[in-house]
Design a protein that fits this description.
26% strand, elongated, 65 residues, 2 helices, 18% helix, alpha+beta
Amino acid sequence: MFDAMRPDPNGRRQWAGRLGTREAIKRDGLELDPGSLVYCPHERINAAGYVDLELIRKYPLMFAV
């Protein structure tokens, strides 16, 4: 999962408010933030390839202590 970045007219990039797969971000014309690679279970990714908050609530991570 990567942060999706939107280029602005000044040549800078702004966060697009989404965290998704490489394929989804490129398909939607956005850019990857290569420094943002994070793990996300596939159960939390929606059909469009982005992290879905409802799926996060449905499949919370359980950590053993």
